[in-house]
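Tokens in:
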């Protein structure tokens, strides 16, 4: 009996799972509709001007909002905000007993909130690369970040 070999896609996903990353929630609002999405594919891009990028799946509900909106917010989550991350990843739990997005699209307890104007959207395979210019920053407490590695949340020591 022949043993099935992993596909390139399966190997690629396994390789990416071995890369630890912080967890962010990207949020946008357009025409009264507000939406947020958990994203680990967030990165700084430039200091002058201050640019960040986040990669959004072409099928994500948030993408249409980002296309219509001129602004978006990126919240960098702190250790202990797993329930918030899960909520915005489409796995809402019963232990989230508050409105996760404030009126300014920030998240209470986030390590930092970046308020961005939309710079540009670029194609990126099955994702869209969303670049934003940081217009304002709100710093939260200097705590440990929420870390995602090997398909699970972890703590820094």
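Residues out:
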């Amino acid at each position: 009996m022949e043993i099935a070999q992993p596909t390139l896609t399966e190997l690629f996903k396994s390789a990416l799972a071995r890369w630890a990353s912080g967890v962010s929630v990207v949020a946008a609002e357009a025409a009264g509709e507000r939406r947020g999405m958990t994203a680990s594919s967030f990165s700084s891009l430039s200091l002058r001007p201050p640019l960040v990028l986040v990669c959004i799946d072409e099928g994500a509900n948030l993408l249409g909002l980002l296309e219509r909106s001129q602004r978006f917010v990126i919240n960098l989550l702190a250790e202990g905000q797993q329930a918030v991350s899960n909520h915005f990843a489409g796995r809402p739990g019963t232990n989230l007993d508050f409105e996760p997005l404030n009126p300014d699209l920030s998240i209470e307890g986030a390590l930092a909130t970046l308020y961005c104007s939309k710079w540009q959207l670029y194609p990126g395979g099955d994702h869209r690369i969303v670049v934003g210019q940081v217009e304002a920053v709100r710093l939260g407490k200097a705590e440990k970040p929420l870390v995602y590695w090997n398909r699970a949340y972890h703590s820094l020591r």
